[in-house]
Amino acid sequence: MLSNIWNTILYQPLLNALAFLVSIIPGGDVGIAVIILTIFVKIVLFPLSQKSIESQAEMSILTPELNKIKASGASKEEQAKQTFELYKKHNVNPFSGCLLVLIQIPIIFALYYVFFKGINFEGGLLYSFIHVPEHINMIFLGILDISKKSLILAILAGVSQYLQAHFMPKPAPSSNTSGPLGSFSESFAKSMHMQMKYIFPFIVAFIAYSISGAVALYWITSNLFMVGQQIYVKKEKNFKIVIK
């Protein structure tokens, strides 16, 4: 049941979109189709991911004020009240970023799965109005075979993941160094950020190399799009909330 829903709502439409793109791209370059489809999906998800990035940035900026509330010595009820008023004052929902990310995950994973499973249009999943492309060229730009492992693309996938983590909103330094909870949360946030920036790129590169060049190309395109989006959001909003 769940597999049928997955195929009907997510996997099958993306596979058909890829087949359509391959059929209209001169020479049937699958690599170009992978890039176009990835960008298209990211554009569709742009409003959601933009809100998620903005929410992360706003929460990062509000961290010093939240730490002041924690360090005030007020009761838990009073701290909760002040925290709620701070969120309301700046129109910030601390859970919106997580919810928006959860909405995007199935779509992003379905797109990844299309490339992970291999470019195969013979499985009977194409719609009646979508024909199997006459020319399926797995040699990206006539240089790299994306149906096989590609060390070059795997390295670029890792580098793009590093850049994506580099431009993520960074956790704000805590002003509360005396409380154990404050210091723990700050250390945890910094640790996660460091792992995303310096360890996860190697994991991405390893996975991309282990599967195929198509997956690596998807990762590169997705990460570079996110880098551009993060820069755009930062420029538009300037990542500033005026604390009065």
From TrEMBL:
It comes from the Bacteria. It is a multi-pass membrane protein. InterPro entries: YidC/ALB3/OXA1/COX18, YidC/Oxa/ALB_C, YidC_ALB_C. CDD domains: 5TM_YidC_Alb3. Keywords: Cell membrane, Chaperone, Membrane, Protein transport, Transmembrane, Transmembrane helix, Transport. The chain crosses the membrane at residues 20-45, 95-116, 136-159, 198-220. It is found in: Cell membrane; Membrane. Residues 31-235 form the Membrane insertase YidC/Oxa/ALB C-terminal domain. One of its GO terms (molecular function) is membrane insertase activity. Its main location: membrane. One of its GO terms (biological process) is protein transport. One of its GO terms (cellular component) is plasma membrane. Belongs to the OXA1/ALB3/YidC family. This is Preprotein translocase subunit YidC.
